[in-house]
Amino acid sequence: MRKKLLTLFVGLCFASALFAEKTLKSGFVKGNPEIKSINALSFGPEGILFVGDSKNAMVYALDTQDEAVSSDKPDYNIERFDEKIAALMGTTVENITINDIAINPISKNIYVAITHSSGKPALLKLTNNDNFEPVDMTNISYSGQALDKAVAADAKDGRGRSLRMWAISDLNYSDGQVMLTGLSNQEFGSTFRSIPFPFNKNEQMSSLEIYHAAHGRYETDSPVKSFTTTKLDGKDYIVASYTCTPLVVFPTSDLKPGQHVKGRTVAELGNWNTPLDMIIMEKDNESYLLMANSARAVMKIKLSNVADFNGSLTEPVEERSGTAGVDFIALPFVNVQQLEKLDDQRFVMLQRKADGNLTLWTSNDRWL
């Protein structure tokens, strides 16, 4: 009897060990994913960093091995951010482009996607002590999935510019899904993709249509520039912004494989502008959308106002830089290039100050 109990105990321990070791990274391989571009970043669980690579038309999951819980609450204030990055890369600021930043929710370390003027991508980690460290992507544990029907590598717009960079315009991870926006090679090019993670070669792809009030027409070939996920009246939605600058919502329940989905345009925020980044912050049971822009201040929008907005904009906004639909408040932050949530009370901004100094700094929910 004692021998049987011992055998059972050992078996249970072995089964428990196997179960404990099985993580979202169980199917990863180690090597060089040969990433050719880093267009968008987003963190998932277990310190997994998702990378959107438009040149390869691939999305990658990287094991950052960065799962040590931060014991402090860092307040970033790093001046001459681009100069420090350029110095680390042995070049000058004119030769680098900062594509995206993402904050690891476990360690609070910031990851920065860079493109050198040669076209070579780089990924840097900014630790709590404000040191930059290159992330070695030549021998990293990773998983990847190719995008189906991505816009062709040689596709060009009406001005002869490459459209391949828009294969992935933005990326977010939510509830076991890697969500991407960008362009496909289909008749209606603007596309939303949802890929289950861990990757299993399955992909749900929907084409998108919106009414662009500043242009006075419906459009199917303009990619989403920035998007996030949220709940409106208890239902899951994608909140997306496009260049020049309609704000559109899509119920995620409508974004089914092969479906052509018309979004509901809830605001025109003024043309001659490009949305650069957006996050959602909460305070006093109210959710707020914060959006950074190329030619305007950071905008604050109550999501309850979005939920309460009936119908959709369907008439042109003819006044240059005119606005319509849901109201917004312009916060006193201009030339903000990136936004990222640090925790429930704080967020990080990458901002070009009046003296030309590019600064990464922490703000808080006092602005909500």
UniProtKB/TrEMBL annotation:
Keywords: Signal. Residues 1-19 form the signal peptide. This is Phytase-like domain-containing protein. It comes from the Bacteria.
